[in-house]
Amino acid sequence: MSDKEPLFSAKNRKLLTNPLGTDNPITIQVLGICSALAVTAKLEPAVVLTISVMAVLALANVIVSLLRNTIPSRIRIIVQLVIVAALVILVDQILKAFAYEVSKQLSVFVGLIITNCIIMGRLEAFALGNKPWPAFLDGIGNAAGYGIILVIVAFFRELLGSGTLYGFQIIPQAFYDMGYENNGLMILPPMALVVVGIIIWVQRSRDKSLIEN
Amino acid sequence: MNTQSNTYTFLYAAIMVVVVAAVLSFTSLSLKERQNMNKEVEKKQNILKAVNVASTPANAVELYDKYIVKAIIVDSEGEVKSNDKVETFKVDLKKENKRELSKRDLPVFVFNKEGVGEKLIIPVRGKGMWGPIWGFISMESDRKTIYGATFDHQGETPGLGAEIANADFLAPFTGKQIFNQAGMFTSLKLAKGTASTNPHAFDAVSGGTVTSKGLEDMLLKSLGSYEKFLKSSK
């Protein structure tokens, strides 16, 4: 942490807020797409994965940032990978002992967290060159930006695909009686890509500065 | 110090591996007992769920002790090998499924509650899309009709294969028959949309074909090994 700079200076606040919009890891950097396809058929796993990625990314960013001056550049990717893998296993083990229900939902995503491009991307691009506090904020910000997209995609896929939200029935039975049917295509992975594409489209048409020349 | 030299790089990697290994094994060892306890409680909850008894992690052990009046191990010929409740609970289906059918220990849990009557609970285990799937099937005392079912999985895709653990998927299993009218073992077959009128079939999960087929295979093999036991009236 810098001696004079306040904890939430304008620069640090940007680290938190930029990834939510103009520097979003999914819609702008186009990272982490694979897990966006896999876990967004339901809202609940999307939220659980967001929280887990947030914990892992923030911690990994801080650890890599603390070690940044000691890591030999030739094996830095391996070092980062080991740190992320160890953190994911630790989180999983602790959940299995103290929050068993959550760990059961998470089990399928453990591998996805390790392979999530956003994590390695942030470690490489930010944590290796910055101090721990900004690295922590960057981790939280990027995981939140990732999570927002995940939740938006999951919201539409679960609502239109299963008629539920967070497991609760939203579309009333009367609609089904009148002939409404759930859109089975929405729960299949390709529709996640289409929904992400629509979000990118909306975002770029609202903010012209995002459009490449 | 030169952080780019070979010696430094080697030392760095070696120390990192040792430190990470130590941290992970320490965590694993110190949490093992709690994790195993959680797994046992979950198994008891699942056994109770197969007979439609809702439980929480806090009261599962108490309800299990109260309603599961007996637990026995049978062999593929239907003969009782043991009637020790604790021993039966500990049978590991993963190991048993690798042994020859005639040598397998097949656990059966006997449930009894006033007003509901006696039900047999049979554990099942098989392969899903990404990993093992397992569950418990409870049978009416006639040993032909399914009273309830519960399935679980290690890593089926949420919204697709993982739907096999959902109440909506499980409810139609009640009342299904695993023997046909001639008394032949038929297990339950996959059907698409026609299962509600067929007493020997269950509906597939849309978008979860591999998991559904795995489930069909699991029921055929697991329930099949109990065929003689279910036919006998012991």
TrEMBL record, chain A:
Q: Which reaction does it catalyse?
A: a ubiquinone + n Na(+)(in) + NADH + H(+) = a ubiquinol + n Na(+)(out) + NAD(+)
- InterPro entries on file: NqrD (IPR011292), NqrDE/RnfAE (IPR003667)
Which of the seven top EC classes does this enzyme belong to?
translocase
E.C. no: 7.2.1.1
* Alphabetic keyword roster: Cell inner membrane, Cell membrane, Ion transport, Membrane, NAD, Sodium, Sodium transport, Translocase, Transmembrane, Transmembrane helix, Transport, Ubiquinone
Q: From the record, give the transmembrane residue ranges.
A: 46-67, 79-100, 106-123, 135-156, 184-202
Keyword Transmembrane in the entry? The reply is yes
Q: What membrane topology does the annotation report for this chain?
A: Multi-pass membrane protein
Where does this protein reside within or beyond the cell?
Cell membrane; Endomembrane system
Keyword Protein transport listed: no
Listed under subunit, the entry gives:
Composed of six subunits; NqrA, NqrB, NqrC, NqrD, NqrE and NqrF.
Family to which the UniProt record says this protein belongs: Belongs to the NqrDE/RnfAE family.
> What is this protein's function?
NQR complex catalyzes the reduction of ubiquinone-1 to ubiquinol by two successive reactions, coupled with the transport of Na(+) ions from the cytoplasm to the periplasm. NqrA to NqrE are probably involved in the second step, the conversion of ubisemiquinone to ubiquinol.
Q: What is this protein called?
A: Na(+)-translocating NADH-quinone reductase subunit D
Q: Which organism is it from?
A: Paralabilibaculum antarcticum
What would be the name of the gene that encodes this protein? nqrD
UniProtKB/TrEMBL annotation, chain B:
* Major location (coarse): membrane
Listed name of the protein? Na(+)-translocating NADH-quinone reductase subunit C
Tell me the InterPro entries matching this sequence: FMN-bd (IPR007329), NqrC (IPR010204)
For the modification FMN phosphoryl threonine, the affected residues are T209
Q: Answer whether the UniProt record assigns the keyword Ribonucleoprotein to this protein.
A: no
UniProt-listed Enzyme Commission number(s): 7.2.1.1
How does it associate, per the subunit comment?
Composed of six subunits; NqrA, NqrB, NqrC, NqrD, NqrE and NqrF.
The transmembrane residues are: 12-31
- This protein's species is Paralabilibaculum antarcticum
Q: Where is the signal peptide?
A: none
Q: The FMN-binding domain covers which part of the protein?
A: 128-226
Q: Tell me the domain of life.
A: Bacteria
Which family does this protein fall into? Belongs to the NqrC family.
- Residues annotated as coiled-coil are none
